[in-house]
Every structure is written in C-alpha cells, then in structure tokens.
Amino acid sequence: MRCDIGVVGLGVMGSNLALNMERHGFRVAGYDLDARKAQAFVTGAAAGKNVELAQSPDGLMAILQKPRRILLMVPAGKAVDSAIAHLEGHLEPADILIDGGNSFFLDTERRGVALAAKGLNYVGTGVSGGEQGALWGPSIMPGGQVEAWEALAPILRAIAARADDGAPCVEYMGPGGAGHFVKMVHNGIEYGDMQLIAESYDLLSRGLGLTAKELHEIFSEWNQGELKSYLIEITAAVLAAVDPDTGRPLVDVILDEAQQKGTGKWMSQNALDVGAAIPTINAAVESRIISAMKAERVSASRVLRGPALHYSGDRQRLIDAVRDALYASKITSYAQGLGLLRVASDEYKYDLKPARIARIWRAGCIIRASLLGDIMSAFERDPGLVNLLVDRAFSEAVDRRQASWRFVVQTAVGLGIPTLALSSSLAYFDAYRSERLPANLTQAQRDCFGAHTYRRVDKPGVFHTEW
Known about the structure:
The protein is of the alpha/beta class. It contains 20 helices and seven strands. The chain has helices at residues 12-23, 35-43, 57-62, 78-88, 105-116, 130-136, 146-159, 178-208, 212-222, 230-240, 250-253, 263-274, 279-291, 294-301, 315-348, 354-360, 371-381, 392-415, 420-432, 439-450, and strands spanning 5-8, 28-31, 51-53, 69-72, 96-99, 121-128, 139-144. Helix 13 (279-291) packs antiparallel against helix 19. The longest helix has 34 residues, at 315-348. The protein is globular. The chain starts with a strand and ends in a 17-residue tail after the last helix.
C-alpha cells in the first residue's frame, strides 16, 4: 500500500506532524538527509506505526500515491531552496510540495511561480503551535493553488487543532504566499502580545516589588477571565518555576536578552512597504533589539540616572489597572495586525478574510485566546470592518479601560520603567481617534524646504507657497 503523504525533514516538528498524521489514519513516508536522524525516528517514536522510511528521493517517490503530497519541514531560507532542488527532478506534473516552515512570503511567491512553470503545485503553509501543537493539533494556514489545497484538505483538517465548537483550525488563506503572509502576521501579533505581557510583569515586579510567586497568582487569576490565553497561561507557569540549582524563581536567573528568528522584523518591514501602521508590533521588535544590547545597557546604567523606583499609591489599583491596560493594548495590537492583513490583501490580491483567519487562530496556535472568538464575531457582523477599534463591542471595551490604560502608562513613565509596547498601543489609539493631527505642520515644512506642495482644508486643489 502506498503512502498518503511524505514528510521531508524529520526534526522535532516534522516528526511530530508525521506522528499526528499517522494517528489520524494516514500512512506516512519519512525522509531526511541525515540518515541517523531518520533511522532514530522510525525505530523510536514511529516504531510499529504506519510510517515508512525512504532512503532517497527516488525511493520516496516510489512509495507515495499520485499525485504525490510532500511536506517540507526544513529551516526557512536557503534550506528550502536546497530541499526543492533535491526533490524537483524526481517529481511529476500535478505533484504537490508543501512548505510548512516559517518562510518569508515573497520567497514562497518566487518558488511557487518557478514550480508552476514545471507543472508542479506549491503550497506555502503556516503552521503554529510549536512541538506539542505539531503532535496534537496545530493551527494551519495554507496558501497556493486552490486545487492543491483541495487535495491536501482531508489530511490538514484531520490533524489541525479543534476550537471549542469542534471546527478544525485550518482554512485556505489565498493564492501564492498568502498562507505564509498570514503566519508572518500571526508571529508579529505574538511578538506584540509577549512584549505587552513582559512590560506588565516588569511594572508589577519593579514598580510594586511583587515576587514571582505573587505574580504567578495574579497571572493565574487573569487567565480565568477576559485575558484567558495560551501566553497568559504559560506566563503563570513560568513564574511558578523554581531553579533547582539556586532555589530562586527560575525567571529571575534567566538573562534578560530576548532572541528572535526574524518573522516579527519581516512584519515591521512589510508594514512600512505597504503603508500600514503597526507601532505595537514595531515596539516589540525594537524591545528585543534593545534587550540584546546587554553590555551597553549595563554600562549605560552606571552613567544614566532615572527616578527612584518607588510607587506610593494603592497597590491593588495598579494591579487592576495593569490588567485593563494589557487587555486594551492587546485589542489595539490585534487591530494593527488585522489592519495590515487588510492592506496587504489588496496589495497582493490575496482576498484574505479576517473572520476566517480569526476562526483558525482560536486553538492550536501560540496566540490562541478567548479574545479571538470576539474578533471573529466582529468581522462576521461587518466583513468590511476597517479597524477592530471601531467595532462597537471593542470600542466600548477599550473606552471602559481607557482611564486605567492612561494611569498605567503615566505611572510607568513616572517610575522610569520602559513600556514601549503599552505606550505605543495607547499612542496609536489616540492618533487613530484624532480627527486632526499635526501633519499639517509636517506638510508645510516639506513644502518649505522641498516644494512638495500641500492641500487645503477650505478648497480643492494642490498648492505651493514661496515661504
């Protein structure tokens, strides 16, 4: 009996996806250039299961049903091009290659065009959920040819996470690189969420002097309400962990230097390219960059002075206000990410559907949260919604928390605790709700030094002044 699908790249993600498929009744062919890794998989986790190991590209093709479906689970970048080059000479027209890594969406566009010219189908597929998601159900974001999606749909629907209503967290995103574009935006929102949570933790930790144990209790409580999400859940778990070597909270012995793989940076760069404002995500990317300047920051801390870290107000008021500010900022961050999806959908002709995207982010993925059900409903009420903040339910939710939001940012500034993402979220909200911004002065300056012209508020036309 031939295999239903092949998995090329048997690292943790590839292996777990293969096991997920096999558990749902599909026969899987595995292949990896590292023969030892492949052998360890079939004799270990896959032992006794419907998983067959291929020793070469020809061997892989020989054991797959036609048209062949082959999932690439290799690192983004040159490794994907190498894997394609390694396999494409052995493929036949109508075969389907699926890139399940975190590839840049324009690379996916390029690869799809090149393979289509040879009669091959290429599906750039965002996969979110980490190792456990791959094994037990990720959120899956495929893009490419519709007919290729239809050929893959039975497998992807079977292995995807299930939302509370039982719906599989996988949908066709659109043509070309749409799937990887949506995954990029997912990861950018993830950056924003993580930074907003980190700043909330920092303000309560340094501002109020709360212990990791106290913070664990606060985040655990928050995860029972409107902030319920995977990232809040694991934050509570992280804050409860104890370092076995020192007996101290593990979070306190981890170096304050966050790394990144580039997807957040890609989103920031693309937002500038298409003209979408995403200051919360940009702040999150910049915060990771600043965190990496550890040696510089240590030196600067001995030279630069700030206010004393002493909060004399009501402790519970600040805790409650941080919860409200975090929720309002999360809404703003999602509004920015979904706004980029709307602008880019027009730019790249992807025809992205925000309600559909929110639906598949409700489970399996890293940004899964109860909030996403409300976001899905907002776009179902109004498919043409230009910004999440102007949906009545969300505008009212933010308005109820606005005073707390401002109190938190003011408090952080007064204490000298950096809140790049929380502050940027509030500034975006204030800019978006402003009928008039100071861009009139900016445009006057541009006309003064460069004769760039301007428009007037009282009559039509384009004007220039000899300043």
